[in-house]
Amino acid sequence: AEFLTQMMTCEIEETLSPENASQYSSFTFFIYQVLRKKIKIEGMSDDQKNTFFLAAIEKVFRKSDKSYQRYHLFITFYKPIREHTKRELTEISGKFPAIANKIDDTLKSPYVENLSRYTRKQLPSFLILFSIMREKFKKITSILSDKNRLWTEVDLSCREKYQQLSSRVRNLALRSFIYIFLTKMIFALILELPVSRYLYGDVNMSSIIINSIFPPILMLIIVSFFKIPGEENTRNIFKRIINIIDKNDAFETSISYMPKKPKERRPILIFGFTIFYSLTFIITLTLIYKGLVRLNFNAVSMGIFIFFVSVVTFFSYRIRQIVNQFRLEEKESVFTPIVDFFFVPVLSLGKFFSGELARLNFLIFVFDFLIEAPFKLIFEVVEEWISFVKKRKEEII
Questions:
Q1: Which residue windows are transmembrane per the record (predicted)?
Q2: Domain boundaries, the chain
Q3: Which of 48, 98, 217, 329 reaches 20 to 30 Å from 108, CA-CA?
């Protein structure tokens, strides 16, 4: 019943906005057709591979939730519910539980997650191409047939996207800074101060000040290292678009994703890797603990420090994903593995804490409506004031 309800709900929503649904469906199929031959998975049939790949595109490109992922896979295997006759619906209704299980097994497959990472790296060129197609639909044929015009449109579209990214990242960083700073103040007033006084009979004001200032400053420092893509990335996107639209099918048929055949799992290696991964947590937390002991932090202040630093790290990672949305090739530093050794444990904790916070609906209400809304209004007033000052300055000059 739940599966059928979800299918009907998704179908009704797409029926009410057919143009948008049709456009996304066409774009999804285009990505699928261009990239499907570039993927080879040993020991797997093309039909199974293509199903996993479609599920990955749904997840990464369309950003569909589980209901829509289920629905789009269903109409791929069968057809929209409205196109079934009464007799067909009667025949297929008894198979819905088996169909739902088959679709869910597909969505949960590790191959879908792996193909999602591959698809995400391929998306920038498609996103720019689709943006040009939407905005210049009537002229798209002449644009795609003229490389000079195409370069002009790609360059313009990329510049607009980069500017939007820059503005979005700046706003996200500022909002995260304020969010973290204010929540830390609330924690200090309702938890850290009274609990420290009750348990230890004293309050270390230096630890409270560090706890209040360090996490938001850490956020700004991390974000300051993020770089918006530039002209080199634009040229790479342009070259990739040329490969995509070129009549020569060399790009489409060259294998670019072929995961290694799964080897037989070795219990000793799995145990060793698990121990090593656990050590990264222990080493990272031990270093943080020793540093905080030197600063005379008590257990309560330590817990709050680790909580906020891990959440800041997770927020920063999410912002980094937004920055790289249009980056075709991400370059890694030689120091990346070393940084990851200490970074992953903190990131894992941040993801866990963020997930638990998301369940606290009351706190979300407080932060969204009682904190974010007033500050959003303040930012709008400040932006209007800056704009007014700029205009006055231009008039004077």
A1: 172-191, 203-226, 268-289, 295-317
A2: 2-122, 165-229+264-359
A3: 329
